[in-house]
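Dear colleagues,

As part of the handover before I leave the project, I'm documenting each prediction I ran so the next person doesn't have to rerun anything. This entry is a single chain, and its sequence is reproduced below.
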Amino acid sequence: AGVSNGIIRILAHRPDYTEARVKGTGDVWHTVLIENGNPRCTCEWFTKHQAQRGLCKHVLACLLYTSD
């Protein structure tokens, strides 16, 4: 089972891999994967910009929540 704060649900967290569900607008949940430091998110903003304009708020939230 994962860790949840109501907005972020951590499904897996290891040094080289994090998988989370992050609440978006309304009832939408986005999947965030961070593998070997490379983040991905299913949100429209990340899909459109592919991290060329920085990370989306869902990835940033996940990174902040899982930082030691």
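The radius of gyration is 11 Å. The chain has a mean pLDDT of 89.

All the best with the project,
I.
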